[in-house]
C-alpha cells in the first residue's frame, strides 16, 4: 500500500481485524518505508526542523510577549534561556510598553546576570531591552538579535 500515512495504515489494519497501537504502526512504517515517510513529509509542505545549538547556559536568551489575553487587559512577558530552556522571567502586565518589558528583563538580570546575547522580535516593546544590551555588550557583536517571532523559540 504505497503512499499512505500512519492513519490510513492503522485504518487498513483495523479493517482487516488487527488491533495495533500507534507506536507499532509508526515503528513498522519507519522500518519498512522510511524513504516514503520522508517523501510524504516533505511533499506536504512540512518544514524539517533546523538544528538548534547554543554554546552554553546564559549565552542566549529568547524574549517575547504574548497578546492572546489582551482583551482582558493582560500581556504576558517571558524570557527563556536558549540552552537549558530555563525560564529566566515570566510576568504579566496591563500594558505593552518597552519600559515594562525592560523592567521584567532587568529583574532577571539582577537574579542571573547579563546574557551574552538576546534574541527577540522587532516589536516596539523590545526596544528598551535592545538598547540595554547594546549599551552593556556593545553594538558590533550581535548583542541583540531581532527576527521573526516564530524563531524566538526552540
TrEMBL record:
<dbReference type="Pfam" id="PF24764">
    <property type="entry name" value="rva_4"/>
</dbReference>
<protein>
    <recommendedName>
        <fullName>Integrase core domain-containing protein</fullName>
    </recommendedName>
</protein>
<feature type="domain" description="Integrase core">
    <location>
        <begin position="51"/>
        <end position="154"/>
    </location>
</feature>
<dbReference type="InterPro" id="IPR058913">
    <property type="entry name" value="Integrase_dom_put"/>
</dbReference>
